[in-house]
Amino acid sequence: MDDESADPLNVLWRDGGVVEDQTLTLKFRHVGGLATLLRSRPGSVPPLSTPPGGQVHGVLYRLDSRSLAALTAAASRGGYRVQQLSVTTYGGASVTASVLVSQRSALLKAEVAPPEAYMRLLRDGAAEQFLSPHYQAWLSSIETVPSVGLPPAYWDTPGSEASRAFAVAATAVAVVTALVTALGPGAAAALQL
């Protein structure tokens, strides 16, 4: 839904909620410094910051099938995939929710401080959706970096390595092709291709 002319999502219902699995943490390890949920393992690097009570909060939306398909497709293009998780709504109901988490190819090698513009969206959304005041305060406490000119660590993913390897290979092919073209028909034999 990156296009302003796209239809808005048809939200049928919404409520705040808390992820039930407390081994899942919010980390800023998605390409560009965006958030994702990752499982904490004993001895793993702790997140930059831990929310109150160690629980991840968010907004649950019930969407019509068209909106869900559009959102899932857009998220997939952005490097996210859908995962089913148990969530307790602020109203006390336990539900299974489709949650967007990073695809492996979009996962940064290390957590980074989130870009300010992105955190502003998270903070504003948390306030607009009446998430827990303690959770909102925690979001406000997270240190950010300017959104412009992010360093290479914000793009360092397994997918970027594959892209770099492809770019190097494509450049090598282009150089050899340019040499063969410049040197004439006998160049391929001279270069032992």
Describe the structure.
By secondary structure, the chain is α+β, with helices and mostly antiparallel strands. Helices cover 34% and strands 25% of the residues. It has five helices and six strands. It has a four-stranded antiparallel β-sheet. It starts with 10 loop residues before the first strand and ends with a helix. Residues 1-5, 163-172 and 177-193 have low confidence and may be disordered.
Q: What's the total number of strands? A: 6
What strand line-up does the widest sheet have? 4-1-5-6
The topology string of helices and strands comes to EEEEHEEHHHH
Q: What is the molecular shape?
A: globular
Provide the gyration radius in Å.
22 Å
Low-confidence stretches: 1-5, 163-172, 177-193
Span from first to last CA? 47 Å
The overall average pLDDT, rounded, is 82
- Strand pairing plus helix content: what structural class? alpha+beta
Task: Tell me the fraction of residues in β-strands, as a range.
Answer: 15-25%
Helix count from the secondary structure assignment: 5
Instruction: Work out the helicity level.
Output: 25-40%
Main sheet attributes: strand count, strand direction, barrel closure: 4 strands, antiparallel
